[in-house]
Design brief:
Number of helices: 0
Number of domains: 1
Strand content: 15-25%
Shape: globular
Distance between the termini: 42 Å
Radius of gyration: 17 Å
Order of helices and strands: EEEE
Bound molecules: FE2/S2 (inorganic) cluster
């Protein structure tokens, strides 16, 4: 039986909380959007390429809409229904 302490596994790197609430945005039908998943973009809630080279390896979620609509995109980067807000920010 070994008495040496084992090294704990490193914790998964979490995204940065860009904002503790959603961003209200107007989305246009047919456009490709890239929602920032890492939280480091200066152009929230959309990707500006800041994730490149980060250790987290978080990549943007690319999506389109079938129709023009106002949407609430996640700013805390922890929504299970990303890119859309699901209320998870209320538990942070
Ligand atoms: S802003 Fe992330 S769940 Fe609402």
């Amino acid at each position: 039986m070994s008495t040496s302490a084992s090294t704990p596994a490193p914790a998964a790197e979490e995204p940065v909380i860009a904002q503790r609430g959603p961003y209200k945005v107007q989305l246009l039908a047919g456009y490709r959007y890239a929602w920032c998943a890492c939280g480091m973009s200066k152009w929230q809630p959309f990707c500006d390429g800041s994730h490149t080279g980060s250790k987290a390896g978080l990549k943007p979620k690319v999506f389109t809409q079938d129709k023009d609509q106002v949407a609430f995109l996640c700013g805390c980067k922890r929504s299970a229904k990303f890119p859309f807000c699901d209320g998870t920010h209320n538990k942070l």
